[in-house]
Design brief:
Layout (H helix, E strand, L loop, with lengths): L1 E9 L2 E12 L4 E7 L4 H15 L5 E4 L6 E4 L5 E3 L1 H10 L2 E4 L9 H14 L5 E2 L2 H15 L11 H11 L12 E6 L5 E4 L2 E4 L8 E6 L3 E6 L2 E7 L7 E2 L6 H6 L17 H14 L1 H12 L6 H14 L4 H12 L35 H5 L1
Parallel strand pairs: 1-8, 4-7, 11-15
Antiparallel strand pairs: 1-2, 2-3, 5-6, 9-12, 10-11, 12-13, 13-14
Length: 374
Amino acid sequence: MDFGEAVGVIDGVRRKMHFFCMDLPQSDACFVKAYPAETTETFLDGHVSAFAFFGGVPLSILYDNTKIAVARICGDGKRERTRAFTGLVSHYLFTDRFGRPGKGNDKGKVEGLVKHARSHFMVPIPHTPSFDDFNDELLDRCRARQEERAGRHSETIGTRLLADLAVMRALPAGQFESCETRAARVSSTALVRYRTNDYSVPTRYGFQDVMVKGFVDTVVILCGNEEIARHPRCYGEAMFVANPLHYLALIETKPNALDQAAALQDWALPQAFQHMRHLLEARMGNKGKREFIQILRLLEAIPIEIVTFAVNEAICIGAIGFDAVKQIALARIERRPARLDLAAYPHLPNMDVKTTRAADYAALVPQTSQELAA
């Protein structure tokens, strides 16, 4: 197993790609997968994906002395594994072997695969919408290569792969989490730092100890056994990754912060929400802002598509308020009509509000001297 580097254009941005390579020397079958960076989670995910692609686990794998797998080289030449690599080996039960430091020829087969993948799979420079799309293409290339013949062999790579699979271990029944796990602490601004980037959590978890799981595409934050936040993985430097919903409970107590909160600045809500806010503030003034925040908080528990429908429906029928939006949303979830017409509730008393007349006050005026004395 080894990593290589190449250049690609991902979603219109030219960038360096790090690609994971695993080679089966007997059959020359290969697996290649590209990632944004060479990290612990990509190292683990590459193994999980390769084993799934081959349909089995090799009895042993040869590595260089990458710090992702080797924490320390002992005096007798033995390697002390990292915690993440120990978990991988323990789950799949293969034997790990390591080449001599600085001796790339000890694993010449996979070094050849790195060069082959770079020159055949990544030249010319690939242009692709995402890493997922490019990895789908790489899978097709790896499958197509199994129809080829390598070296002087008369049989195809795919045919010789069957001999490899006959002696490989079966995939274990349990699922292995290909992630890096780190302990962290929530800051006063409800942020958790992972690999130089800050990720938000709900404000009620401020100053608490949490566990961060860094996957290739996702960052998951746990408090105890509870998942409290999930974000898309960011590979930038010193970036702020926030979920606006995490701050709404705090903003509800300080409505004037609605327009200044950094976490809400780039929140792309449907236009109907802004229309509802204008209507609420026109009718209720500053209290309308608080009620609008209550509508936003419905997104904490209800999908945005349903809340958007409820907001549009409330505007159409002129029911401008949090209670109406909530009732319409709940009715949508329960697949029933929203009962906003009081005629549908016969058990409620009917209210008859009349216009006040001056004559009605005559009953309060004393009519006789006895009544006046009283």
